[in-house]
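We modelled the chain as a single entity of 345 amino acids. Its sequence is:
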Amino acid sequence: MSVLEIIVFTVVKIVLILTVMLLMVSYLVYFERRVSAWVQNRLGPNRVGWEGVLQPFADVFKLLLKEDIVPVKANQFIHTLAPVIALFVAFATYAVIPIASPLKIFGYEIPLVVADVNIGVLYVLALTSVGVYAITLAGWSSGSKYSLFGGIRSSAQMISYEISMGFSVAGVLLFAESLRPIAIVQSQGSWMWNAWIQPIGFITFVVSAFAETNRLPFDLPEAEPELVGGYHTEYSSMKFAAFFLAEYANMIIAAGMIVTLYLGGYNLPFFNIESLGLANWLTVIIQIGSFFIKMGVLLFFFLWIRWSLPRFRYDQLMSIGWKVMFPLSLINLIWVAVLIMVFNL
């Protein structure tokens, strides 16, 4: 494959991923409203389009038409830069998540991942760490004490839970012996999902993902009863929409990473579909369906938890991060090392 062909295929994959991500984010907001209505025994959005399916587009138009207000005491450059960083990190992270095995078409073998890099997991962890800068800068640049408190909370929360997340991922990397997401997925063939082998690591990673994405019960950076709206209190119009999009895009990324690292990625449970000898295009379609079904179940879990559990107090948040999550992630790492030494897995 020539350099020009590689560039063309990569650009096409980027456009497809961006389109799918934007649609998923839009309708994830819609499903969040439907799930909250279901939990609270009410109707939810049902006016714009059939059963409210066009409500996400109405929301976008509303935010587009709203006035962009910047506080007098705000640092205008940083105030504008923060939501840009949030969006960039959210959409760039998906580049290394594979959704199926390579597609063979017209004599080409096209990997169904934007960037098949050897340090994919490290790339994701690095970008998610950068994402907190968007929230911190937004809080500081707004010139509001509520926003500043939200930014400071986010920084402390990220430090507390990023460590647990890193140690949880380390167990996965020990099994796969690679930082490459595709290699991690291939190491989980048949029933060998990391969620079964290292359940403690799976649970700690999921909880850390809730904290990293600022979802209830860990949404302390924006806690409305305490901080009005937290770090985005002073944002309006499309800048607020950018933070809103980034939050839901991060949920999708978190679900994609959980599926890739712990739930076998695009592999079907308990058997290898590639061993059936099906046509390559049919195998790829089934694998894509498997990947997105797993993601859909996890995203529903994210939404369900938000409307089921109350918000933690800030001291409880920190106590769980350092006194519970951190020791558990270390125990998981030791457990994985013992399994490898004793059973040579």
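As a brief sanity check on the tokenised model: The chain has one domain: 69-343. Residues 201 and 287 are 25 Å apart (CA to CA).
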